[in-house]
Amino acid sequence: MTGHSQQEYDDDFVCVLEAVWGEGYLSPGGADEVEQIIGEADLYNQSILDIGCGTGGVTQFLMKRYQPHGIIGVDVEKSLIEKCRARAAENGLGRELVYQHVQPGPLPFPGGSFDIVFTKDSFVHIEDKQSISDEVFRVLKPGGRFLASDWMCTEGPLSREMQHYIELEDLGFGMGHQREYAEAMEKSGFDGIRFKDRNEWYRPIAREETRRLSGELYDQLVSRVGKELVDHEIRTWEALVVVLERGELRPTHWRASKP
Ligand SMILES: C[S@@+](CC[C@H](N)C(=O)[O-])C[C@H]1O[C@@H](n2cnc3c(N)ncnc32)[C@H](O)[C@@H]1O
Q: pTM of the prediction?
């Protein structure tokens, strides 16, 4: 399985992302978007794995909102895992939430460990969709659910605009399209695979995020992380809006079950 082990989400980058998306969130939409991904699934007393837990906002929200049996958050970046642990402790969730630093590759859990595997906007960093899908299938219990979201692209060659956006983002993106995900999950053995496109939802929000970055957030972010990074992020967000509006970038939710 491919993936990235070097630090891509350093402190300054995390500072910018959390200023835009909220403390604990390295992806858009906050708690509302997490609720959308969970939908009608009943998480009460369930064991949950969150793959690519970032700075832990999702895990904290899931624990408070749904009272699962337990949640393990894993991430390939040690500094993010440390942030997750510190914030969970600050919020009195240090016992309930377990965070584990992992290497890219096979998940370090025995087969059939979890009722629910959750992931939000992290598989974009993992090029080999088949291996990660097989791993999710393996660690789920029979009857377990896979509840997820990721940034996908349309099929076919990437446009110049998309290549430009990916270059600016510089996060080792391994973006896949919906059919690639569907085929990988079917091959792994998943049932009931359903997708929900979020392009239309995210377009106006991304425009507003770009406006806030160059507006009310600008001065305070420049004083915290420097003008060069903030200006770079504004250019990245502008390029993001272009590929969203072209319909080429398709944030998408999906769900599937292990028979
Ligand atoms: C866009 S952030 C999303 C973080 C979090 N899910 C959220 O929504 O706030 C992507 C996360 O995936 C992590 N990541 C990248 N490759 C990974 C891998 N192979 N296994 C687990 N996590 C990975 C990154 O370190 C980062 O924290």
A: 0.97
